[in-house]
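Before the break, one more example. Copy the sequence into your notebook; we will annotate it together after we see the structure.
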Amino acid sequence: MAPVADPPEDETPRSLSRRELLRRAAAVAALPSAALLLEACGPATPTPPAPGSSTAGSSGQAAPAAAKPTLAGTTVSATQPTAAATTVSIAQTQPALRQELKAVPRNRSLILEGVPEAANQFSGDVAMQNPFLPGISRSGFQVVMEPLYFYNAYHTDAICGPSGLDCKGGEIPWLATGYRFNADFTQLTVDLRKGSEWSDGQPFTARDVVFTINMLRDNAPKLTGSADMKQWVKDVVAPNDQTVQFTLTNPNPRFFHNYFQFHQDIGIQIVPEHIFKGQDPQTFTFFDLDKGWPITTGPYKLVNSDPQQKIWDRRDDWWGAKTGFHPLPSPERLIFLPGYASGTQLNKLINNEADSTFVLTMGDVDAAIKQNPKINSWTGNQPPYGNIDYWTTVLGFNDQKPPYSDPDIRRAVNYAVNRDELLKIAYKGGGEAALVPFAGLPSLRPYIDSVKDLTEKYDVGTFDLAKSAAILQGKGYSKDSSGVWAKDGSRLSLNIVTFSLFEDVTPVLVSQLRKGGFDASFKMPADMASQVMGGQAEAFVWGGNLSVLTPDTTLKTYQQGGLPFNWKNDTFDKVVDQMFVTATDDPKMQTLFHQAMDIWLKELPNIPLVQLYARTPFNTTYWTNWPDENSPYINTIFIHRTFLLIASSLKGVEG
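Here is what the structure looks like once it is written out:
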């Protein structure tokens, strides 16, 4: 199936990451909780091909040349992968940006390519490691700035987290060992792990946590995460070095989960008081290799930062190994490479020049697996080649703008959507349809299953053009000579905007809507975020979910006419308010969820389409024990804050 519209090249934000897109969106909307939204902004998918077309990787056409690191002794071939252990050396850079580098064999180095904030090279953050400043790329800080806890959104009854770590319900204690709320969820006490320390040998204590939170509150909203800390934290104190006590402004049973359990690309980092104190956090870069900066608690130190690569070497004096908490990670060196054209990234992976790459298209992953049997994915050699991402694909509307302010018209659109065909064409038969706007993650599955009676009651999953036509005819529409619905001389248009993350699904969707008689089209304008969050967009393909633990995080985005959907229902708002203050394990949560979704599905503020998949293949030539659907100890995306769990779980291939 050919795409219905091919947006002009200069309109297409092909290098715009989801994080940057939502950063712009938050700026437009002036969201009071923009930090949470921005921290949820995960990866952007490189531009997929039109359905049925070939990609640069699968067609064999050479991709544009891009800057790359010097890999001494490594010879790459487009047809024959190289597997010999070679020494990684780095071209000379400015002395201030590097330390003396030791020789590390290729089979002891973990090479990660495709950092989405860096197109062909790192630029604005070569000399920056302050995690709270805008513009920092996910090129290592997400690995070394450790959390109080991790949360594995993919946990199962059999696999909770990485082997050897304490884990319950997906919660993995790290710098902390426990936490507890008071009865009304307005006070939180966190117990820190004894023996943890910063990379300069100073102890990590509750004073560092208190300092970081107060620093963010005092600099809101200018630092990442600061608006949320100011909104939720009334006071934070350290009764002793191993205890932190929060007093919240309002009840929030999931405050600790939302901010201090790293999951996906979400979580507040803790910085060392003895380094940041007296600095202006709005300008302090936290970078000076001669001083050992950045000072972190993680098992790697930054030894090289230049436009071509960021290099982190293992610290054998890491607190985790010294205390017996966790063995040293096997990789002795981490190398982060920028984002290249998809063909370049594909070839590096095939030729064993990279161990994992950022999200590739379906066709590229298929080509990589066929050309190198050592390449694998979350779902092995079968589509969809990736884990479910939390940002479920939906067709959204400005629900205050006619004609899509009418829930009946939105339902007519829903009847014109064939989700099975979306999966067959866009996802090559893999993947899963979505009837509610939630990701199919283990903790959310029970909620999704609990409203199957409602999705059937409201006929959400039915593709039926006759039912669509009956609704529109009842609203006074009739088809013109071209088979397009019209009323009073005006066609029923459906002008959709989107960006590259959804370019695989959107052309197929638009073709379906045209078959249903809608005057549908799509564009990928550079100001897409402004159009959506400013209310100018008529319709948009977007992510409809932010939850990974309980559904209230997502449902709150629909309250009080919140953007981008601009839908209002006072009864729904009251139910969601009750959900938000209900304990995670309280059976009342399911009851309230059912009530809220009865309202939501009846009015259908947007149309859930399919689950979104993060296709991040990995190469097992040098490293094994990657997570996958059979061993889901965490997701596979290396730019996420959870990647330390992978780096510390990988096993080197001997020889």
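Confidence is low (pLDDT under 50) at residues 1-16, 26-95. The two ends are 47 Å apart (CA to CA). Try to locate both features in your own notes.
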